[in-house]
């Protein structure tokens, strides 16, 4: 009984975390990131070079991508942000970024990878 309650609590927290991440993503669309995406994608941010996912598929794909990490919240946050912008999430839990050029080429101010 207690184990079931703990499991339900963990699931509720995960669902709440994902919904919070999604709402934060909608809020965080600043000019610098948009400019950087335009540079990465070319042609003023048109869908050239982007993946074929629908943005509604991003949570499922990011849950898969981030399932093996210890740092689930930041992984989900940045994965969802990148997926919504690039419409692509690489296969596997790590690496394979060459499958998604937009996802792979989006960098932080310091030049590090933005997408997990």
Annotation keywords:
GASA; mainly alpha; elongated; 5 helices; Gibberellin-regulated family protein; 116 residues; single chain; signal
Q: What do these coordinates show?
A:
The chain is mainly α and 116 residues long. The chain has 5 helices and no strands. Helix 1 packs across helix 4. The radius of gyration is 15 Å and the shape is elongated. The protein starts with a helix and ends in an 11-residue tail after the last helix.
- Helix-strand topology string: HHHHH
Average pLDDT works out at 78
> What is the terminal-to-terminal distance?
37 Å
Low-confidence stretches: 42-48
Evaluate the radius of gyration.
15 Å
Provide the structure class: mainly alpha
Number of strands: 0
Beta-strand level of the residues, as a percent range? under 5%
**Helix count from the secondary structure assignment:** 5
Shape descriptor: elongated
Main beta-sheet strand count, sense and barrel state: none
Present the secondary structure layout.
Layout: H1 2-27, H2 31-41, H3 58-65, H4 72-86, H5 101-105
Helix pairs in contact: 1-4, 3-4
């Amino acid at each position: 009984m207690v184990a079931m309650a703990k499991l339900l609590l963990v699931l509720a927290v995960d669902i709440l975390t994902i919904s919070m991440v999604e709402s934060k993503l909608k809020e965080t669309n600043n000019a610098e990131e948009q400019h950087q995406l335009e540079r990465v994608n070319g042609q003023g941010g048109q869908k050239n070079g982007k993946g074929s996912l629908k943005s509604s598929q991003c949570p499922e794909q990011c849950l898969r991508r981030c399932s093996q990490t210890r740092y689930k919240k930041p992984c989900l946050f940045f994965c969802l942000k990148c997926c919504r912008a690039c419409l692509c999430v690489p296969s596997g839990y790590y690496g394979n970024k060459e499958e998604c050029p937009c996802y792979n080429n989006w960098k932080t101010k310091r030049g590090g990878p933005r997408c997990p």
